[in-house]
Amino acid sequence: MKKIIVLGCTGSIGSQTLDIVRNMKNDFSIVGLSAGHNKKELEKLCNEFNCKGTLYSEEGILGIEKLVSSCDADIAINGIAGAAGLKPSVLVLQAGMDLALANKETVVMAWPIVKKIAKEHKANIIPVDSEHSAIFSLLNQTGEKNIDEIIITASGGPFREFSDEQLNNVTVEQALHHPTWNMGKKITIDSSTLANKGLEVIEACRLFNVSAEKVKVVVHPQSLIHSLVRTKNGMLYAQISNPDMRHPIFDALTWPEIKGNYLEPFNLAGNSMTFFPPRLDSFPLLKYAYECARKSNCYTIAFNAANEIAVNAFIEKKCTYQQISQIVNEVLQDDWSENPDSLEKIYSADKKSRNKANSVLVSKNGGYGCQ
Description:
The structure is a single chain. The chain is α/β, with parallel strands linked by helices. The chain is 48% helix and 15% strand. It contains 15 helices and 10 strands. A 6-stranded parallel β-sheet has the order 3-2-1-4-5-6, with helices on both faces. It is globular, with a radius of gyration of 20 Å.
């Protein structure tokens, strides 16, 4: 039986992890939980699973450090959103614990350091994003040396068919209505702008040690194919399942085994699949992410931080939908070529880019910044 810590237990990833454990009690047990602000729900879940818990808004990172060090766990799911998830990832790996990683910022901001820590402590990092989980599985089956390119699918979000004029008038309410996935606010907005796909491109380059030129994006509105790989002989291999995040979570929890489960299998009959190229001019954040993946260094940190500031501003109605990409682009005009070879440098670059994004935001909206 695998013992699990769930970081971000009240969020989308955390909630679906707990659903798996409830349905497979002979395979998994929860030994630790962390939540951001929902104290009542955390206490309820700790009682249900008879485990330790910590509330980030009260105990901060020290609470997570204490939880990780005091729980005899086999694996931790990191479902914390944003840059706040980086330090918890480090703590998990330093404890010699396997990390099921749904926090893409850990890879985007600090992959060389995180990879080194994992190696030093003999811990494994298993991707939980549906796209990277699919690639991880496909590479294991086809062999990394046989791969010519990686193809990441994107739903295209709710505005895939919007004209540029329509994009100028997008509201927060529209952007928060994803046609396929039920996710948190930030990642839902990112999906609509293709910033999330941009972060996934950066993540794929780093997780699988390939150049940006080897990673392609195709819009697939049905979200049934989660990623593909093309082998050197030209053949395409795809992972197909219903759009249910419990699939990649379960795969991470059971890796390296492939086990049966209670989830509904995909039925190919009656389903159709369509594919389109992404509209890079209308959704330029994906294009900027590719540029950052090529330049690396602090560019990926700046992209992530500026986007977080801009998305928060949009949610709080302090900037327009189209200004999200404009803010990120202006931040990226600065020099981010320093090599972030320590956590201190990473957090310094993160802070610098957030400050720059806030300055751009203030200039655009007449005096209102955003945290």
